[in-house]
Amino acid sequence: MAGKKIKPRYYLIAALSLDGYIAKHARHFTGWTSPADKDFLHARLDASDCVIVGNNTYKTARQPLSKRNCLIFTKSVGAVKQASERRLYVNPAKVDVAAMVRQKGYRRIAVLGGTQIFSWFFKKNLLDEIYLTIEPVVFGSGLPLFNADVDTVQKFKLASVRRLNKTGTVLLRYTRNTH
């Protein structure tokens, strides 16, 4: 099919505590997740053309993300700031992110968060898949997957469930429910 544009696919990847938090606070490093979750995450990132993260998430995981194409959401730039060959700072309030992704030719986009980024993509109705790793830990309080102001309903369907280890880490994969 000559000339047909391939629609980029956006997939959210997050680890959650049993009580539903992605982290205890903004600078909480992902060291609390299991080696099995990290293996899954790295495999998904290796299959991605681009990773989209918030500035706090990027600062927290700068080392592992530095070798990947990253769009880093921040309000501290006018529109776009090229920081390096692989690192682009983007103000999503001033840029059509979906158009930029298409223009760059990215087809598989991993959305890593945090809460504000996940909520932004949800509100824009851009998420095609959601991967949630549920880790058997309890934080008691922390950062939710989505902000409280997410008030739209979008339907997803459970596509797969996979136990990742003996302690009970579970990977849930949801796809957009088109019905």
From TrEMBL:
In its UniProt record, a GO molecular function of this protein is: 5-amino-6-(5-phosphoribosylamino)uracil reductase activity
Q: For the Bacterial bifunctional deaminase-reductase C-terminal domain, which residue ranges apply?
A: 82-165
Source domain of life: Bacteria
Mention one GO biological process in which this protein takes part, according to its record: riboflavin biosynthetic process
Q: Which PANTHER family match?
A: 2,5-DIAMINO-6-RIBOSYLAMINO-4(3H)-PYRIMIDINONE 5'-PHOSPHATE REDUCTASE, DIHYDROFOLATE REDUCTASE FAMILY PROTEIN (AFU_ORTHOLOGUE AFUA_8G06820)
State the protein's name: Bacterial bifunctional deaminase-reductase C-terminal domain-containing protein
Q: Native species of this protein?
A: Candidatus Falkowbacteria bacterium RIFCSPLOWO2_02_FULL_45_15
